Every structure is written in C-alpha cells, then in structure tokens.
Amino acid sequence: MGRKSFKVEFDESPPDDFDPANPYKDPVAMLEMREHLVREKWIDIETAKILRDKLRWCYRIEGVNHLQKCRHLVNQYLEATRGVGWNKDHRPHSLHGPKVESVEAE
C-alpha cells in the first residue's frame, strides 16, 4: 500500500454569476470576484518579482555587457510592472512611465 496522491485543483476563472452593474445583488459572487481579483494581482506581483531576480542575476553575470545582454529582461520587467501593485488600477498609464518597445537585435 502506497500513499495516495492528491492533486489540489483551483478554479482560476472569475465567477459566472457576478454582475458588475449590480455587484451587491449576490454577495457570494461579489466575494468570489474580489478573491479572484486579489489572486490575479498577487500573481502579477510575484511574476514581476521573479523577473526582477532574473534581471539582477543577469546584471551580475554579464558585467559591463549587461546593457546588450539583459535588454530583453529589462523590457519584460518594465512591461510586467506596468500598473502592478496595490491602488494602481485606476491611474492613467501616463503615470506608469512610457511603454518601452522591444528592439530586435540586428
């Protein structure tokens, strides 16, 4: 007899019965929607942290060539941090900094 393997399944989609026009109509759906938004926010924050750690590693390893070698990570990190964080949902994108276009290597 071995151990039983259990796999935890999470429902990653927003609730189907949530009505944005009248959010207080169904309090359970409102709380599920709030949990969904918070979960998505935390995923975005943790993704940005992972990219930041990769960028630090790239700067440290590449040394003086970090401007060319780590450019793709810089673009990914800037795009991942655009609008990420608490209380930044309703700020205009102009306050988050200019959008950096990816430059292809020639």
From TrEMBL:
Any one Pfam family match given in the protein's UniProt record, by short name: NDUFB10
One of the record's GO cellular component terms: respiratory chain complex I
Keywords in alphabetical order: Electron transport, Membrane, Mitochondrion, Mitochondrion inner membrane, Respiratory chain, Transport
Compositional bias of kind Basic and acidic residues: 1-10
Predominant location category: mitochondrion
Chaperone found in the keyword field: no
Signal peptide: none
Keyword flag Electron transport: yes
Domain of life where this protein originates: Eukaryota
Record's subcellular location: Mitochondrion inner membrane
Topology within the bilayer: Peripheral membrane protein
Region listing for Disordered, in residue ranges: 1-23, 87-106
Family per similarity comment: Belongs to the complex I NDUFB10 subunit family.
PANTHER family associated with the record: NADH DEHYDROGENASE [UBIQUINONE] 1 BETA SUBCOMPLEX SUBUNIT 10, NADH-UBIQUINONE OXIDOREDUCTASE PDSW SUBUNIT
Entry protein name: NADH dehydrogenase [ubiquinone] 1 beta subcomplex subunit 10-B
Organism of derivation: Chenopodium quinoa (Quinoa)
